[in-house]
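Action item from last week, closing it out:
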Amino acid sequence: MNSKTRTLYSNLSSTDDKDRLDAFNKILSLTDSKVPWVYEVWDDLLLRLGHPNSYQKSIAIMLLCNLVKSDTDQRISQSIETILEHTKDEKFITSRRCIQNIWKVAAAAPDIRQKVIDHLEMRFKECASEKHFNLLRTDIIQSIRSLYDFQPDENLRELGKSMIKEENESKYRKKYEAILFS
């Protein structure tokens, strides 16, 4: 990792919101492509998943999901359960960030693709009783759609259709269908 990237990574822990956000956006952009320094930060990001600050947990989730494409050692296989736990985090925004980004893991790690898909399907069903379930379901359907866009597979579309059929409220069903079929 070069010194500029190391400084950016260090700034993820900054107490200055602007510095932290700027560093996060730059590192997130860097990790849109494969990076050679994935294992220099991997363990630290896993530790951040247990951080009491939900923003730090969200940073870790989003970066780990982006970094899976660089994970040639397939460390994600040992870490996926820990990440998936955050689809039902105590902080709603952390749950959403995890659901919104977890499709990247399924796209980059074929060995655990089905595990992620099955987990999203389970969360779609179980979140029906949760506060703001419609937002979680929207994120789940969007995640399925994003994975489909990355790797077209009619089974994903069929899964999305079957999940949408479980929705009792027509306004939400229409919203989910618009995402899946746009």
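Closing note: The radius of gyration is 17 Å.
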